[in-house]
Amino acid sequence: MAGMSVEDTPSNQVWLLHVDGSSTTQGSGAGVVITSPQGEDLEFSIKFDFKASNNEAEYEALVIGMRMAHEAGARHLLAYSDSQLIVNQIEGTFEAKKKA
């Protein structure tokens, strides 16, 4: 998994976010794990009520995870995803293609 951003923040203040989105013929959804600086894990499984591609599901997982982490009190977040496309777009390495 690749990290999306790192700030110069004391490790005792950094929250961790692990996300994974998935899409199948049965539907799409996301898994989110938020780890507090104290090591507490908050785990969520979300089923979307809309169709999404794998990449869209990954983005949704990231956005949902970031919102949930913020609501839980996170102000410094290190996010991880298994999608190289998403990580590189967030880091600015890749640009998203525009729809035709």
Topology:
Blueprint: E1 2-3, E2 15-24, E3 27-35, E4 41-47, H1 54-72, E5 77-81, H2 84-91
Parallel strand pairs: 2-5
Antiparallel strand pairs: 1-5, 2-3, 3-4
What does this structure look like?
The protein is globular, with a radius of gyration of 14 Å. The model has no long low-confidence stretch (mean pLDDT 85). The protein is of the alpha+beta class and 100 residues long. A five-stranded mixed beta sheet has the order 1-5-2-3-4, with helices on one face. The chain has two helices and five strands; from the N terminus they run E-E-E-E-H-E-H.
Structure keywords:
27% helix, 5 strands, Nucleotidyltransferase, domain 5
Q: Quick one: how many beta strands?
A: 5
First CA to last CA: what distance? 31 Å
Q: What structural category do the secondary elements indicate? A: alpha+beta
Global morphology:
globular
How many strands, what sense, and barrel or not for the largest sheet?
A: 5 strands, mixed
Please give the radius of gyration in angstroms: 14 Å
- The residue ranges in which pLDDT falls below 50 over 5 or more consecutive positions are none
Main-sheet strand order equals 1-5-2-3-4
Helix fraction bin: 25-40%
Mean pLDDT: 85
Total separate domains: 1
**What's the CATH architecture name?**
2-Layer Sandwich
Number of helices: 2
CATH superfamily: Ribonuclease H-like superfamily/Ribonuclease H
CATH class: Alpha Beta
Order of helices and strands: EEEEHEH
Strand content: 25-35%
Assembly form of the protein: single chain
Query: What is the CATH topology classification name?
Result: Nucleotidyltransferase, domain 5
GO molecular function, one term: RNA-DNA hybrid ribonuclease activity
InterPro entries: RNaseH-like_sf (IPR012337), RNaseH_domain (IPR002156), RNaseH_sf (IPR036397)
Protein name: RNase H type-1 domain-containing protein
